[in-house]
Write a structure and sequence with these properties.
This protein is of the alpha/beta class. It has 11 helices and 10 strands. The chain has helices at about 5-15, 55-70, 85-100, 115-120, 140-145, 150-165, 185-195, 230, 265-270, 270-280, 290, and strands at about 25-30, 35-40, 75, 105-110, 130, 145, 170-180, 200-205, 235, 300-305. The longest helix is centred in the middle third of the chain and has 18 residues, at about 150-165. It binds iron/sulfur cluster (2 copies). One iron/sulfur cluster binds near residues 210, 288 and 292.
């Protein structure tokens, strides 16, 4: 994708952004620990205490989402690996389904997606499982997804795909490839491998996580758009705190706590920030927004098995 196409894409995204009464996407941190140390992730810089989301807090959130907007895309997780706690995750998914949530989704690094866990996840009503796998070659994967094991994660996801195929229904299974300098050459091999096995391939650009990482996306500040993350997504840490946006990984600009207030009120507390974005009053936003480049990441590309144009869309390159 060249630069002008990328700017067109950002403008398309911006034209659909409004200040909604409830977020489109709700991300909840089941577990703030992680078993990997990925090169593109801020997790090893996290200073806030690590812990696990209590069932009672999830029940409170799920009940309210089900009442206000049951179609909200609910995602486990935010900063941490949810499959460190598979039993609690499955209990939470079952509760969410019973409460009436219509879109429950999981993002995992796949290392603990054992055959048993895969079968149990396929027994839930999950809509999507995204597995972050950013390399085809073992050396590339294990450099980027440090402490991960390429052969383990490939075998785990291959089993998940086979098992879903055997059942003839189940969640969409996506393998996510964050395009970076070290892995972009492998994308075609990666794409063909996973599409051939029935996975959706999701290709996306690297995030700066509130300006903690440099990214290679070149879009001039004059072309700035309202930050889609801030406008569409609400996050809840394991302890109930609601950060201003995904770039606010420590909760330094927190909107309050989900133990003490409704999600509608907490989302409402962030309304002023959203309006500043939509009015392009970027210099009135917290300074984090000066260095963060996440407003410019654009949409991911999703390639699904059976689509005709895979060869035409090999890269997001800037
Ligand atoms: S698995 Fe996820 S949370 Fe853990 S270090 Fe990697 S990107 Fe970060
Ligand atoms: S641009 Fe600002 S609102 Fe958007 S993710 Fe970054 S810090 Fe948050």
């Amino acid at each position: 994708m060249d630069k002008s196409d990328h700017i067109d894409e950002l403008n398309r995204i911006a034209s659909g952004l409004k200040n909604p009464v409830f977020p489109k996407i709700f991300a909840v941190e089941l577990c703030a620990d992680c078993d990997l140390n990925c090169s593109m992730c801020h997790h090893d810089q996290m200073k806030r205490p690590k812990g696990n989301l209590p069932m009672a807090l999830w029940q409170k959130c799920a009940d309210e989402i089900a009442e206000v907007a049951p179609g909200t895309n609910v995602w486990f997780s935010f900063c941490g690996e949810p499959l460190l706690m598979p039993d609690r995750l499955i209990e939470m998914l079952k509760y969410g389904e019973k409460a009436g949530l219509r879109s429950l989704n999981l993002n995992t690094n796949g290392m603990r997606l054992t055959n048993d866990v895969a079968r149990r996840l396929l027994d839930t009503s999950l809509s999507t499982i995204v597995i972050g796998i950013d390399g085809f070659e073992k050396t590339t994967y294990e450099k980027l997804r440090f402490l991960g094991n390429r052969d383990t994660v490939y075998a785990n996801v291959e089993f998940l795909l086979e098992e879903r195929k055997r059942r003839e229904h189940g969640p969409e299974i996506m393998v996510q490839f964050i395009e970076m300098e070290d892995n972009s050459k492998e994308f075609a091999q990666y794409r063909d491998h996973w599409l051939g096995l029935g996975a959706t391939v999701k290709l996306r650009r690297q995030l700066s996580w509130g300006g903690k990482f440099e990214t290679a996306i070149e879009v001039a500040n004059e072309k700035r758009i309202a930050c889609p993350w801030a406008i569409t997504m609400m996050h809840v840490f394991w302890d109930g705190r609601v950060p201003r946006c995904p770039g606010d990984t420590e909760g330094e600009e927190s909107a309050g706590n989900a133990w003490d207030d409704t999600l509608v009120n907490l989302w409402g507390n962030l309304r002023g920030y959203r309006q500043l974005h939509l009015d392009h009053r970027f210099d009135e936003l917290p300074t984090r927004c000066d260095t963060c480049t996440d407003w410019k990441t654009g949409a991911s590309v999703k390639l699904r098995p059976g689509q005709a144009n895979h060869q035409d869309r090999p890269s997001l390159s800037r």
